[in-house]
């Protein structure tokens, strides 16, 4: 029995040493097939060690540091391509086909729906930070003389208003506001509830 017990202990020690040696031999070399820039020194790293890193232009880091694991460097991949999400605008639609995200320098055109301004398509572009540039402010309703109103403080009938901006209206000559209609309306996500005037 003692001989069997000693053999069992011996085998456990051999297996433990094998595991320790195996773990101690796990190393990670420079990640060759990933979009990692060489701005930091990368030597051969041991299991569990961490390394600062940066990514090539057009890519972003997926973690603050890279960690050496039994499966190589994590996270996998270390760098992800910078993309822009498709922005959404009330009362507007994309011109042509659309994707859920876009690569850097991709261009997209938006057009306001019928009855909203501006009438011309607006072009936006995905920048190097993953943000859309020249983003359409809002699509706003046309002001129309059919309901007898005009802008109170501006001579033109076309304005661009931002969300939550108040706009003052006046009735055309010889008309007055209908009951319960206020002369001031607020732009709400591109929609303005226009007051109405009557004779």
**Mean pLDDT rating:** 78
The CATH architecture of the largest domain can be given as Ribbon
Spatial order of the strands in the main sheet? 9-11-13-14
Shape: rod-shaped
Rg, Cα atoms, Å: 32 Å
In CATH, the topology of the largest domain is named Complement Module, domain 1
- The proportion of residues forming helix, as a percent range, comes to 10-25%
CATH superfamily of the largest domain: Complement Module, domain 1
Q: Briefly, what CATH class of the largest domain?
A: Mainly Beta
Q: Biggest sheet: strands, sense, closure?
A: 4 strands, antiparallel
Measure the end-to-end span: 113 Å
Class from secondary-structure proportions: mainly beta
Summed up, the domain count is 3
How much of the residues is beta strand, in percent?
A: 25-35%
Contiguous low-pLDDT stretches (5 residues minimum) are 18-23
Series of secondary-structure elements, N-terminal to C-terminal: HEEEEEEEEEEEEEEEEEEEE
